[in-house]
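Sequence, please.
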């Protein structure tokens, strides 16, 4: 699904992790923990329309619950989050 990042903060105990609040539409806001902080700042993530895998069981990552996963690519140390600008939160991706 498409999600828009509402809030992002660094994980207090992990340099590479960001904790984000992501709106998936219809009042469904999920917390997602992702290892992208070496490529993106919190400010760069806020407002991005991203692809979220939302049908996963919650997982605890370094003591913080993650309720989904974002789609990104990686080339060596560079991580690129998949953006889908113009699509509304909750739009299904196929």
């Amino acid at each position: 699904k498409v999600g828009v990042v509402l809030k992002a903060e660094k994980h207090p105990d992990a340099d590479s992790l960001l904790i984000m609040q992501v709106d998936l539409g219809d009042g469904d806001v999920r917390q997602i923990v992702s290892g992208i902080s070496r490529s993106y700042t919190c400010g760069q993530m806020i407002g991005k329309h991203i692809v979220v895998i939302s049908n996963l069981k919650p997982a605890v990552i370094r003591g913080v619950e993650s309720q989904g996963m974002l789609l990104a690519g990686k080339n060596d140390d560079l991580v690129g989050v998949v953006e889908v600008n113009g699509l509304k939160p909750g739009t299904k991706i196929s």
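The chain is about 5% helix and 45% strand.
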